Amino acid sequence: MSLAPNTLSLREHALDGDAQRHAIESLLNCYLREYALPRGEADLDSHAEDLPMSLRQRPGRCVCIRLPQGARLVLRAEHASVLGRCRFVCAPYLKRHGQGWRPLDAGELARLLLAPLNGPERHGELLQQIDNSLQITRTFLRHAGAANQATGDSLLASEQHQIWGHALHPTPKSREGVSQADLLACSPEVGAQFALHWFRVDPALIRHQGQDPRAALRQLCGRDDLYPCHPWEVERVLADPLVRRARQLGLLEHLGQQGLALYPTSSVRTLYHPELAYFLKFSVHVRLTNCVRKNAWYELDSAVALTQLLRPLMDELTELQPGFALMPEPAASSLDLSALGSPEQAREVTECFGILYRQNLDAACRQRYRPQVAMALFTWTLDGHSVCQALVQRYAARCGVDYPEAARRWLAGYAEQLLGGVLHCLFRRGVVLEPHLQNTLLGFDANGLPCRVWIRDLEGSKLVPEHWTPEQLGHLGERTRASLYYDADKAWKRVAYCALVNNLGEAIFHLAGSDADLEKRLWRQIAELLELQCQQLGDPPALRELCAGAPLPSKENFMTRLLLRADREAGYTALPNPLTAARLGQRP
């Protein structure tokens, strides 16, 4: 028993080290991609001789970043991809003019990287969010071991096994304004499940759009006169002046937590239960990574409207791209307290109580295809192994092929479904999807190869004006219509980034590992697939230019947070094109 405190201390020290390493890797990969590499201030294969002693004997590439006033940052990388994405194997070391080398932790590194950037008055907020993300990662690591056990539900397991989050985001796990008790009670990373807060509500105050979701709510609470709220939102709701007035008038009564427990998914605020017909996407006034995750009133309108507008396209995809599907959001609901106060006050209540209902995959579909979230595959396990590599190795053993051939087949199965559907939607129908890793589900055949792709979350889906006239959207309010449009340039950048950089770029990074030849073969495979798609889609200029060597657009998550921009207004960094380099057998 006397060893327990020391054992616990050693374990916590190791977990803190894991959290530090992943925070450092996220920060440096963002900084390299968005700032240092485009400005020629980094070398991903440096041969400097004056390295700190602890790095001289370590294997791997030496990555060197040049900083103002002659300072340098160096560290070792196990490998660096053709897109400049690195996996580091040590802490970064800093050397200033006239001083020796010293290692940096994540906080010191963040302050160092932000120092030369514009907007120093904004540094404090981002530094706080970086520290918040680090502390929350530590918390999740300390509580994840017992919670994240295998379940019979592949979808649920993948939703709740994403400890590290977005690999190229400076604050992948930041959640501002949430107590540790609430964090652990409602976060997917620790295997949480919880009941909703319920209110008895005068039926005249409830508003439904699209399909009627009341059967699902009844299934959760066993009654017809109740309406739910997320636990993270209930304090805000109860403090609202219109809600207080409604309670005083007997129109609304808070009954507390009760009913069937739900599971938070990887987006945190969207909840799942295998027996429900819908995922339930709630409002939470909590900043998760970039954004405060409330359901804006116009998003409640636009998601249902998009589902109705895109029904013909969904039917078309079933016929033309049978391995690809969109997940409809056919219903929304909220409360309308406009009779009790001003429009602005009523809008706040509408957003707090807003729920979007996303169609669930039925039990037969889940059993047949064993779906998983892409982000849960293209990431690391808690002990540092690539998740998708293990899947490919099992496929290789089952089918009697070597790993490179298995990886080629695995990527082909995935990329053909993903790109076939996403590019058809954009270039044939002017529909902009956001197929990033958290929005993409993969389904598998009996041998373990990807054979199905679902894209979810219509909040990020937009329409290109050349394909969708104002008359077609005339039944929608002006603000809702405006929220649905992307011009052609922004549409292409968002689709190309999500599909090719965020999604397939990470897939190839994990599938290839440190095998540079395999990485080139996999990018060559993507290049051939895109050229075929270009021909089939009538040679759209943006796709033709990409196949000919135009740069890949990469969303600037680091600078977006630093400059306090809305996600919709994020800028893009031009990445060297890996497609043409792969055909030529070169590194970009």
TrEMBL record:
InterPro entries (UniProt xref): Aerobactin_biosyn_IucA/IucC_N (IPR007310), IucA/IucC-like_C (IPR022770), LucA/IucC-like (IPR037455), PvsD/AcsD-like_thumb_beta (IPR043033), PvsD/AcsD-like_thumb_helix (IPR043032)
Lineage: superkingdom: Bacteria
Domain Aerobactin siderophore biosynthesis IucA/IucC-like C-terminal: 409-568
Pfam family, one: FhuF
Aerobactin siderophore biosynthesis IucA/IucC N-terminal domain span: 155-378
Family (UniProt): Belongs to the IucA/IucC family.
Entry protein name: IucA/IucC family siderophore biosynthesis protein
Organism (species): Pseudomonas zhanjiangensis
